[in-house]
Each structure stands twice: as structure tokens, then as C-alpha cells.
């Protein structure tokens, strides 16, 4: 299982904006000059990177869990 420090800078920034500052995907997309779908994928990737390596969870299910958590 990873930690926030193990995420790349882009993933860490998105997670911090979502969780610490309560920003939406749309707000973050505007701040980072990106689109909301790309921000959502980045956030899902961050949650996936934080999950245990031995978790037997499909990518689709992992993304559903990430959406729920974020």
C-alpha cells in the first residue's frame, strides 16, 4: 500500500485539491487547464496507486471505489 508521498506530483495535487480543499473535478480542471475527465482519471489512478498491491479487485471496480471515496 502506498502513501501520498509515493504519488507523482500531478496525482498528489489532484488528491489534495479534492480532499483537503473540497474542489470538484470541474474546478480542478479549470485550475490546471485540463478537462474534468482527465482529472477524474488522474484521481482514480492515484487511489489505485494507494491500494494494496495484492488486492484482487478489477480496474472497473477500483475506479468505482475511487469515485465513491472522492
Textual characterization of the structure:
The protein is mainly alpha-helical. The protein has four helices and no strands. The protein is globular. Helix 1 (9-19) packs across helix 3, helix 2 crosses helix 3 and helix 3 packs across helix 4.
Q: Name the poorly predicted regions.
A: none
| Helical amount | 55-70%
Derived from helix and strand composition plus strand pairing, the structural class reads mainly alpha
What is the radius of gyration? 12 Å
Give me the count of strands.
Answer: 0
Question: Beta fraction of the residues?
Answer: under 5%
**Main sheet characteristics:** none
The ordered string of helix (H) and strand (E) elements is HHHH
Give the termini distance in whole angstroms.
18 Å
What's a quick, concise take on this entry?
This protein has 70 residues and is an all-alpha fold. The protein has helices spanning 9-19, 25-32, 36-50, 59-69. It has four helices and no strands.
Give the helices and strands, then pairings.
Elements: H1 9-19, H2 25-32, H3 36-50, H4 59-69
Helix pairs in contact: 1-3, 2-3, 3-4
Question: Which tags fit this structure?
Answer:
4 helices
Amino acid at each position: 500500500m502506498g502513501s501520498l508521498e509515493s504519488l507523482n506530483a500531478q496525482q498528489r495535487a489532484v488528491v489534495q485539491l479534492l480532499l483537503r480543499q473540497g474542489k470538484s473535478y470541474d474546478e480542478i480542471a479549470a485550475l490546471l487547464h485540463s478537462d474534468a475527465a482527465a482529472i477524474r482519471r488522474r484521481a482514480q489512478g492515484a487511489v489505485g496507486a494507494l491500494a494494496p498491491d495484492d488486492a484482487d479487485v478489477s480496474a472497473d471496480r477500483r475506479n468505482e471505489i475511487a469515485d465513491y471515496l472522492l
